[in-house]
Design a protein that fits this description.
With 388 residues, the protein is of the alpha/beta class. The protein is built from eleven helices and 14 strands. The strands form two sheets. A seven-stranded mixed β-sheet has the order 2-3-1-4-7-6-5. Strands 10-9-8-11-12-14-13 form a seven-stranded mixed β-sheet, with helices on one face. It starts with a strand and ends in a 16-residue tail after the last strand.
């Protein structure tokens, strides 16, 4: 089977998490860049990458890379690529995105226009035609320019991979599914440890954690644009990969995952989201204030996305809110707490300095992932004697 170079974009600063995911799937990584991992794989890797990767936004098929400082160089570089190997005569193709950083060519609309024109010229020659019906499968093209180096890709995913298909309603400041999964994977939480989100909103952190615990692949309940690429990926290959994902699911597990929110309607929406994700029975949702957060169990985890105070009236309430978070946390013996927030005074009002702090961008909003680390639980003694 033909080997391709595949690119997986991710949130800036979380490349190590995605890198580990790709290695765990069994693929060789060829390059790590800011916000992007490149790896090698065949057609099956396109299927499995879309279905199994939790922390990438999409899987891109890399067509080529070259230098271009003028539009003529861009045109000729695009035209020289073997587009006929990827796009059939009836394929629908367009440049869905062009981005430019520190490059002489910087106008996205002009880049898109030149790229489309060059592809058309190439395919005209290869298919000996002057007109394309574009009634077949879709092949959206994404172009990235960085310091005059042009990277050319085709999007295999379609809708961004954060769209798992379970979240119909979201709270005011939702965190994306891919970012939530990446932040969970940054922590040492496993399914045998209690997890609480006292600001659960639409339930994203909890649902992603439950899906991990139950081995539910994030993409197993949705479709991908490249499912229509019969010229590159046989239909039965998709069926095999979806079957692989289904066979791995195990919801007959015992976990302690809890979500609270002060808004009863939001709690109801979170339950609905969990039901669509197939993990409703694994999460306990409750209308409850952060001031009521207490638990007899030790060595638990709080992972949460509390209010940021984007509006002035909300910002005035933040000192009291974060002081309440700190008070509740101090009452939890030996727990760890992980908070993503853009509130600059979070540590001050929580009342203690985080052990670790990582800058994260939640969309265009700069935020911080504060990590308050509790002690590790004692290792369980294994009984090596045989029962007689």
């Amino acid at each position: 089977m033909k080997c391709y170079e595949l690119m997986a974009p991710c949130h800036f600063g979380l490349e190590a998490v995605l890198k580990r995911e790709i290695y765990d799937l069994g693929y060789e990584i060829t390059q790590v860049e800011d916000g992007r991992i490149t790896f090698e794989g065949d057609a099956e890797a396109i299927c499995r990458g879309n279905i199994f990767l939790r922390t990438t936004e999409r899987v891109l098929l890399k067509i080529g890379k070259f230098q271009a400082e003028t539009f003529e160089e861009l045109f000729q570089g695009i035209k020289a690529l073997p587009w006929e190997k990827y796009i059939p005569a009836d394929g629908k193709f367009w440049v869905t995105k062009a981005s430019s950083v520190k490059s002489k060519l910087f106008s996205p609309s002009d880049i898109q226009r030149i790229v489309k024109k060059a592809i058309v010229e190439r395919l005209k020659q290869k298919y000996d035609t002057e007109w394309f019906s574009e009634e077949g499968a879709s092949y959206p093209i994404r172009i990235f320019l960085l310091k005059d180096e042009v990277t050319v890709t085709i999007d295999t995913s379609g809708d961004s991979l954060h769209k798992r298909g379970y979240r119909y309603l979201a709270s005011k400041a939702p965190i994306s599914e891919t970012l939530a999964a990446a932040l969970i994977l940054l922590t040492p939480w496993k399914g045998d440890r209690i997890l609480v989100d006292p600001f659960c909103g639409s339930g994203t952190f909890l649902i992603e954690a439950a899906m991990m615990a139950a081995n539910i692949a994030p993409g197993m309940k949705r479709h991908f644009l490249s499912e229509g690429w019969n010229n590159l990926i046989p239909e039965e290959l998709w069926q095999e990969c979806f079957k692989e994902a289904e066979d791995m699911v195990n919801t007959d597990i015992k976990v302690d995952i809890q979500g609270y929110d002060i808004d009863g309607e939001i709690v109801k929406a979170a339950r609905d989201n969990a039901r669509r994700a197939g993990v409703e029975q694994l999460i306990h949702f409750q209308q409850r204030s952060v001031s009521d957060l207490h638990h007899p169990k030790k060595y638990g985890f709080i992972i949460t996305n509390p209010p940021y105070g984007e509006r002035m009236e909300e910002k005035e309430a933040l000192p009291e809110l974060y002081a309440g978070i700190g008070e509740s946390y101090r009452g939890l013996n030996s727990w760890s707490m992980y908070i993503i927030t853009s509130y600059e005074d979070a540590e001050r009002y929580i009342g203690c300095k985080a052990d670790k702090n990582r800058k994260i961008y939640n969309g265009m909003l700069k935020a911080y992932f504060y990590q308050f680390l509790g002690p590790k639980p004692p290792k369980k003694n294994k009984n090596t004697e045989e029962n007689r």
